[in-house]
Design a protein that fits this description.
10 helices; globular; mainly alpha; 239 residues
C-alpha cells in the first residue's frame, strides 16, 4: 500500500537550496550579460537561437551537477503515482488554457505583441530544431528547479500564499524584464505568464514531485511551438 502524499515532502536540502538560489541571479542576469559581452564578440555570427541554446545548456549542466540528487529523490513520487501525476499535468494544462482566455481577452485591448513571444517566434522561424531543444527540453528543467523547487519549495515552509506569490511574480518577471529595460510597457505582458506559473506551482504542490511541473512545462512549450510551426506552414501555403 502506498503512503499518502505529505505536504512539503518534496524539498531541497539546505545545500541544494543554497546552490539553486545562488544560481538564480546568475541565470537571470549575470550569465546573459557575460555571454553578451564575452561570447558575442568572439563569435559575432552566433544566432539568437544558438545563444539561447548555450545559455540553457550552461544552466542544465549546473543543475545536473548540483541538483541531481534532488531530481532523483523527486522521481520516486512520479514512479509511485504515475496516473496521479498525469492527471495533474493534464488538469494543469486545461486550467492554464481557461485562464489564458481571460488574460488574452484583457491584453487584446493593447495593440502591441508580447516581445518575448515575438523573439521566440523569430528564432523558431529560422532554427526550429534549436529552439525546440532549448524550449522543450532544457528550459523546463532549469526553470522548474529554480522557480518551483527552490523559490516555491523554500517559501512554502513559511507561507503557502507567499510561495505562490513569489514564484509566480519572479517567473513572470523573468520572461519580460530584459525587454522592459528598453520599453517599460513590456512589463504589462508579465500577466501572460501568470496562468502558466500558477498551474506549474499547483502541479508541483499536488504531486510533490518537481518532475510533474517539468513535464507540464514541456507540454506547454511543445504545444506552443507545434502550433507556431503549423501556423508558419499555413501562411507559406497562403502566400
Amino acid at each position: 500500500m502506498r503512503a499518502p502524499l505529505s505536504p512539503g515532502s518534496s524539498r531541497m536540502t539546505r545545500r541544494e537550496s543554497i546552490a539553486a538560489l545562488a544560481y538564480l541571479p546568475v541565470h537571470v542576469l549575470l550569465l546573459p550579460l557575460a555571454m553578451s559581452f564575452v561570447l558575442l564578440p568572439l563569435i559575432p555570427s552566433l544566432s539568437d537561437a544558438a545563444f539561447n541554446l548555450i545559455y540553457y545548456a550552461v544552466g542544465l549542466v549546473y543543475m545536473l551537477a548540483f541538483e541531481l540528487r534532488f531530481l532523483r529523490r523527486d522521481f520516486d513520487p512520479l514512479c509511485d503515482r504515475p496516473f496521479n501525476c498525469l492527471v495533474e499535468v493534464l488538469a494543469g494544462y486545461g486550467i492554464m488554457l481557461a485562464l489564458n482566455l481571460a488574460v488574452n481577452s484583457l491584453l487584446s485591448l493593447f495593440p502591441a505583441d508580447n516581445p518575448n513571444n515575438a523573439a521566440v517566434m523569430d528564432m523558431a522561424n529560422m532554427e526550429m530544431g534549436t529552439v525546440s531543444a532549448m524550449a522543450v527540453f532544457m528550459a523546463p528543467i532549469v526553470e522548474e528547479i529554480l522557480f518551483r523547487g527552490a523559490v516555491f519549495g523554500l517559501l512554502r515552509r513559511k507561507s503557502r500564499v507567499l510561495a505562490y506569490a513569489a514564484s509566480i511574480l519572479l517567473f513572470s518577471l523573468y520572461h519580460v524584464w530584459s525587454f522592459a529595460l528598453l520599453d517599460a510597457a513590456a512589463l504589462l505582458y508579465l500577466v501572460q505568464y501568470i496562468p502558466a506559473s500558477f498551474v506549474l506551482c499547483r502541479c508541483y504542490e499536488r504531486t510533490e514531485s518537481v518532475w510533474a511541473p517539468i513535464f507540464l512545462h514541456m507540454l506547454i512549450n511543445g504545444v506552443s511551438l507545434s502550433l507556431l510551426s503549423q501556423l508558419e506552414e499555413l501562411l507559406c501555403r497562403m502566400l
